[in-house]
Amino acid sequence: MFARNRSGSSRVLSNMKAKHKRYEALVNAFHADIFRYAYWLVKDRSVAEDIVQETFLRAWRSLDSLNDEKAAKSWLITILRRENARRFERKQFDTVDIDDVSVHDETQDAEGDVQDRELHRLLGGLSDEYREPLVLQLIFGFSGDEISQQLNLNKNTVMTRLFRARNQLREALERQNEQRGQANG
Amino acid sequence: MDELEFRRRIYADPETTDSDVIAAAKADESKRKFWNEQKQFDKQLKQAVKVDVPEDLKHKLIWQQSANEFASYQKRSRWYVAMAASIAFTVGIGFTMWYHQPVSIGGQALAHMQYAETERAHSLLPVDLEQVNAKLASFGGSFTDMIGDVEVVNYCHLSTVRSLHLIVDTPQGKMSVFIVPERGDVRVPAEFEDKQYHGESIKMHHANIMVVGNKGADLTEMKKAVTDKIHFSA
Prior knowledge:
heterodimer, A: mainly alpha, Rna Polymerase Sigma Factor, Chain: A, 2 domains, 8 helices, about 80% helix, about 0% strand, B: alpha+beta, Protein Transport Mog1p, Chain A, six-stranded antiparallel sheet, two-stranded parallel ribbon, about 25% strand, rod-shaped
């Protein structure tokens, strides 16, 4: 009985080791992109960090349910989106409408060139429904099909939103260039 | 493919590999130019979405999982410790209760009878009241008068109880009188017997008296003699 218990507990231990390895691999492979995605969802670095931590904690707890390593990315995104939604349920009353607040990211201000900063600002200014599919495409290289699955949207809707997102960005940039041109001229 | 549709498709996915989009681009220089511009723009966008990741995030994520696991491990091990402690406690209590369970000394007295047979042989000097009372004094008791022809008076241990054993010669054969100090953990049965002897006990204020005689012997007289003559000081 004791021998069986011992081999049982060593199996548990080696399972734990394997789980650790898996988790660390998951963190290494995805934490950066997941953080960036979270950032573009909430447009706040510290909130994004919180959500990412919560996401990975949940990922750890239900790591056993992740059977397909290829699905890991979208699995994490799903957890993160749920965490973000939960945050809104929790903080329904003390959130500021983030779209009204101009987005400023200090590190980007410090390092990025003017164009980068401009794009950053414009991306932040896109409405959520346009920004989210665009960010999925840009960060994770998701196809239209993958985005539509992830966001539970019709593919045509996704393609339209992607088109509008880029279109709005182009137009905004052109408008600014014109303004700058006028100011200079 | 018209201009608008082409732009829609490129805007939706600048990295499209759709054959009709590619064919349209091949056929039209301006479309190719537009597509290249868009690819360029997308590179900038990709650069722009790549916000800096907090340097310590990766370590935090790995650490928080270890911390979480440690907490649940602690919870689990607390459970084990509690279980082990509970078992140890139960065993301890059980052992103590077994060890301290009231000792029934009737059997002990009977066993002693066998021993007394041999004991009697090497002390043929008669025992007087003084000797008996000297020994009984340690229990705080004394006899006012001799209870008969006492042959032997000696301390003995019935289980863990130090008692005084008197062997008395009576017309009904040898009888033994045990004076057993009152102790909470000692149970004295009212009657007990084996193949050879039988005994009865009398509960007194400070002690239990057990009178044991041969099977068939009437113990009443001896019981009466003892209860009449024994006195406890306190």
